[in-house]
Write a structure and sequence with these properties.
399 residues; 10 strands; homodimer; Amidase signature (AS) enzymes
């Protein structure tokens, strides 16, 4: 274990630091990591970002198997990181624990809900960090903080011992500053890839590019050319002829139904205090029209079949992880909501599809990071991580 | 809604019956169903089979989306059914609520953990019933009670609003007396199949047949011949050259790790009363050696790749669902444990593999039912249900 960390960016939850040594030898030896505070560590409370959650739930009796696997691979735990309350938000704000600083753009939000994990990695406090991603909670903070992040195929990594938000969307993801570390963690946590063969062709998701502001498109242009050198000239595809806003709407309705099914009993029984935005989202989840949720479930089914057909041969989608860089800390709630809706039309692609997505820190807009996402068929996570490492090498990013 | 049910077999949980009308029209119109009491129904407690669970958890604020989907498809809910405590057992015993009668073999256990759902279907109280299957909890009671049952591909049906036991094994399954009803429920709940093409060749899992007692093999011989008429001569394969007991051992260790990660905090904080067997299983889960769990996780990874390779072309495994019929109600704990271990070497195939498995009520041993299982690659659930319906037709089973 190294010296005590100076948490210069407010990435860790308040209180005594939760640290654990890993095994003496293993594939992650020498790497320090942090875990979002919705994964259990035995003997410690799991706050889930909300004071009333910690108060009304017993401390963890067990350590989540995914955390256990990292310790057994010889990584060492440096602490538990802040999360948006109940993981239900994208800016990374937490009024109870304090919003972590975005080390790459201190005047902007860090992104969430895995805000503390992203900030800890971006500030160099740890080599990698576990987050979770339901609707963008790893991909967006990775894009905003200028680091690598992966949302794996849905179901690829066990969420036992982790608090849920929308079980049919929830995934265990992680961040790293270096592409090789992102892949090394994947080698420990991920199943073998389903099906083999090289990835390709490259598919440029036109609608997701049109959804991004021009400055983001400009910032990602050169990396796309390099990616085309690796995979061949991109073919243009439309992911959602019905509109990305339709994707977002269906995602929102199914997620809301699942969020209330998962957490509603606790919310109703506890009447917890919530910070701004979170309260409104749970109120909307409670009031969700069951017919809309049913329509969303039906849409998801056809969308998954469509994506499977598109990506079956090894196709790789590429598009901006987020259409814009992180909102400024003084952005109005209306501005934040506008960014949220525009962003989630894109994050809903992998969310609804159950697809793996890796975000690479390739560009800057107004001095703030924006990421490029690579997306493949479910079960191709390892190949995707290998491709990300190749692209990072070509681009001169940290490998 | 039909007239009040006479619960002649003790299938439903004690107390007022939880009944809900479905939509006025839909694909399941006219069908009554029941749900295992680990799925939430808004406004009602979820007992999870244990009095201390119901006491220490708030009533459900929401209805589980899978139950909602059945109601929206116009099925009507007739009640919540008994489960083994925390779904952690295979005989179907529940000392708090009373063990349901096995309608097909009243001197024997109904099988569990979805005991009440199986008994309700076998007694004709409902047309179908939701259960859940982690290590055999749908397949075994289906086999014991002489009805159809499916454990879907892992992850195919959302478990939002359902209590978990081992998240990376847990599935939402269901029972029916008629093969067509089993498939109609699947058409409502399941995603489109991944990949197309007809199922086949037929693969006879030799080790699972050798594991069964001779009387079971004899009882299933004729159905296997009929299956060969449909799919061609069976090819013989060994699923587990390392031994089915090795499969069971790895399954047991990973499941135990996940069970303690999922429920350990509640067990430690509540110190609940447990019936025989359940207490011991949680004590074992708490004491599970992390190195054994890690070995189990590694084994599962290679086993999944092996099964995927074996079944990729459409292959269908066939073997006895349970090696023996249901144990007698007066079987000693030692006899029950012996049956459990012998059974779970076989149920671990689909459990570790994440594979869909349908059990058909094709045979009898000493007057008690035994099922034949069909197993395919993940994502081929609908094709598997269609095959089961064809086979049922050929065999003169209820379609």
């Amino acid at each position: 274990m190294a010296e005590a960390l100076n948490d210069s960016v407010g990435a860790f939850i308040p209180g005594p630091r939760v640290e654990l040594a890993g095994a003496t030898a293993g594939p992650l030896a020498g790497l320090g990591f942090a875990v979002k505070d919705l994964y259990d560590v035995a003997g410690h409370p799991t706050t889930y970002g909300n004071p009333d959650w910690a108060r009304s739930n017993p401390p963890a009796a067990a350590t989540a198997p995914v955390v256990q696997a990292l310790l057994q691979a010889a990584a060492f735990l440096r602490g538990k990181t802040k999360t948006v309350e109940l993981a239900y938000g994208l800016t990374g704000e937490n009024v109870w624990h304090g919003t972590p600083v975005n080390p790459a753009a201190p005047g902007r939000f860090p992104g969430g809900s895995s805000c503390g994990s992203a900030a800890a990695v971006a500030a160099g406090l740890v080599d990698f960090a576990l987050g979770s991603d339901t609707g963008g909670s790893v991909r967006i903070p990775a894009s905003y903080c200028g680091i690598f992040g992966i949302r794996p195929s849905w179901g690829a990594v066990s969420l036992a011992g982790a608090r849920g938000l929308g079980p049919s969307f929830d995934t265990a993801g992680w961040f790293a500053q270096r592409a090789s570390v992102l892949a090394r963690v994947g080698a420990v946590l991920l199943p073998e890839d389903a099906g083999g063969g090289p990835l390709g062709p490259l598919l440029k998701a036109e609608d997701a590019w049109i959804n991004a502001v021009p400055a983001t498109v400009v910032a990602l242009a050169e990396p796309m050319l390099v990616l085309e050198r690796l995979l061949g000239r991109a073919m243009r595809v439309d992911i959602a002829p019905e509109g990305l806003d339709t994707l977002y709407e269906h995602f929102r309705c199914v997620q809301a139904e699942e969020a209330w099914a998962t957490l509603g009993s606790w919310v109703a029984a506890t009447d917890p205090q919530f910070g701004p935005g979170v309260k409104e989202r749970f109120a909307a989840a409670k009031a969700m029209d069951p017919a809309k949720a049913a329509a969303g479930r039906a849409f998801r089914r056809s969308f998954q079949a469509r994506m499977r057909a598109l990506l079956a041969g090894g196709g790789v989608l590429a598009y901006p992880t987020s259409p814009v860089p992180a909102p400024l800390l003084d952005a109005s709630q209306a501005e934040q909501n506008a960014v949220r809706e525009r962003t989630m039309g894109v994050t809903a692609i992998a969310g609804l599809g159950g697809l793996p997505e890796v975000s690479l820190p390739v560009g800057k807009v107004e001095g703030a990071p924006v990421g490029l996402s690579l997306v493949a068929a479910p079960g191709r996570d390892r190949a995707l991580l290998a491709l990300a490492e190749r692209l990072a090498t070509e681009l001169g990013l940290p490998v």
